[in-house]
Amino acid sequence: MIEKAISIAERVCKVGVWASGILVLFMAVYICIDVLLRKLFSVSISGGEEFSGYTLAIMSGWAFSYALFKKAHVRIDILYLKLPLKYRSVLDLLSLVALAIFVIPTTYYAFGVLHTSVLRNSVANTPLQTPLWIPQSLWFVSLVFFSIVLILFLVGTISHLLRRDIISAYKLAGSTTLEEEIKEEAKIEGLSGEEG
What is the pTM assigned to this prediction? Predict the structure, then answer.
């Protein structure tokens, strides 16, 4: 059941990451147009800095979730790779718990920020006066999603460890080795070579 929930979450995450990528691409074009207009015609379309800040906040939770699925969060694995698999699984669990200790309170306080903005009908202190609940709600949703993914990983890892299924626990939460990264890169290169 947890594996199915993680699989669904991964598909949702891919949609969120694609949407975030489109948002970043839009902001890049928006800023380029603004720079060109200023350079050529001394005219500026305001909001580039403001909207790019919102974009960074909104995409953060989706990017963090995607990094968790792809095992791309930074880990110092000098000692980790020398340990037996069962000790690695304990460290994997500790790393998820440490991440949860940071992310879940952050999500809680993000809700407080959003709630305050809604109650006060807050707007940005910029010429655009963007209603802050709009970017803050999108930011909050991305953090909620990341918290859910993190909890699913924690529950899945604990479940595997309780069943003494160390291999599954490692596959779910373990750090990738250099050899695994090389195989993944070779697989990607092979796919792009076939397309060409």
Answer: 0.85
